[in-house]
């Protein structure tokens, strides 16, 4: 499988482009990012930034002075966007993707399967389908290169971080175990698998067994069509 996500337009930033402060994690680490790149990639950030812009002016006192504290004034001008339940390291990786348009980094900066799952979960919550597709492609590439499948604890994290049965990440993890996990890996991971995974696995087994027989199990994920686990909409058109 190759990364066939359509090329993105080169983003140009002017001297007066607005910067946005994104506060991440319980320790409130700050990231200073261009508003244009956030709104272009993420419907979540687009809505949050639009909400900041529509914040009404604070009331005036009898002398016409603003009745507001410095903190409220910051909120009035836009303020920070908070993602306090996100790990700063994962948001930093997402920020690198925003500016470099890739999740495929050279060693020793290449991402682990754990990191890629976390990036996918974050990108899905932000509505950034291009990032979710890139994370999927990189997970497949990493798994194929290292000859490993995600362990049971990582599967549990992925299923806890997604809610839809049609999640592309869930489908990929099910197929990893359907096509490529051996008996030992499955046995070692089975105690950690959430019930939702077990249900999805059995439904996938029935689907393959009834549709293609035993031949349906003789697949390698890296050889499947590029769009097999992708999601698309108007902002992220189908792969060519």
What does this structure look like?
The protein has 240 residues and is mainly α. The chain has a domain at 149-229. It is built from 10 helices and 3 strands, in the order ββαααβααααααα. It has helices at residues 35-41, 43-53, 70-77, 88-100, 113-126, 129-146, 152-160, 168-180, 183-190, 195-212; strands at residues 19-24, 29-34, 81-83. The chain has a 3-stranded mixed β-sheet. A hairpin with a 4-residue loop joins β1 (19-24) and β2. α4 crosses α5 and α5 (113-126) runs antiparallel to α6 (129-146). The longest helix is centred in the middle third of the chain and has 18 residues, at 129-146. The radius of gyration is 21 Å and the shape is elongated. This is BTB domain-containing protein. Residues 18-107 form the BTB domain. It comes from Elasticomyces elasticus. InterPro entries: BTB/POZ_dom (IPR000210), SKP1/BTB/POZ_sf (IPR011333).
